[in-house]
């Protein structure tokens, strides 16, 4: 996750865009006037007050994963990739194999996997 040490208007505008909120909706979410949001866009170097820094930190922390990806892209940061070591990859493969076996057994027992309803074959 991107961490902002000191928020600026540029960062705040990037977060608003990443959340896909209008100026008015973002202002309401942060508890500020819409004009404050407009000022951040007009003055990207502007540093919000400590109270608003905290509100922006909270908004960033609560943002869904897709919005965090858009936020990083809006700031021009490279996309972060998750790397898995061989042990973790082996565990994931084993779990998928176990799930496939379980689903086969459920189907063989006469249940439909999608709805887990008993089949009409009796």
What can you see in these coordinates?
This is HTH cro/C1-type domain-containing protein. One of its GO terms (molecular function) is DNA binding. It comes from Kribbella flavida (strain DSM 17836 / JCM 10339 / NBRC 14399). This protein is mainly alpha-helical. The protein is 61% helix and 0% strand. The chain is built from 6 helices and no strands.
List keywords for this structure.
mainly alpha; 434 Repressor (Amino-terminal Domain); 122 residues
Q: What's the number of domains?
A: 2
Oligomeric description of these chains: single chain
**Tally of alpha and pi helices:** 6
- Stated plainly, the CATH topology of the largest domain is called 434 Repressor (Amino-terminal Domain)
The largest sheet, given as strand count, sense and whether it forms a barrel, is: none
Instruction: Quickly name the level 1 CATH class of the largest domain.
Output: Mainly Alpha
- Beta strand %: under 5%
- Structural category is mainly alpha
The count of β-strands is 0
Topology:
Elements: H1 9-19, H2 23-30, H3 34-42, H4 50-62, H5 65-74, H6 86-108
Helix pairs in contact: 1-3, 1-5, 2-3
Please summarize what this structure is.
The protein has 122 residues and is mainly alpha-helical. It is 61% helix and 0% strand. The protein has two domains: 9-74, 434 Repressor (Amino-terminal Domain), CATH 1.10.260; 82-122, no CATH class.
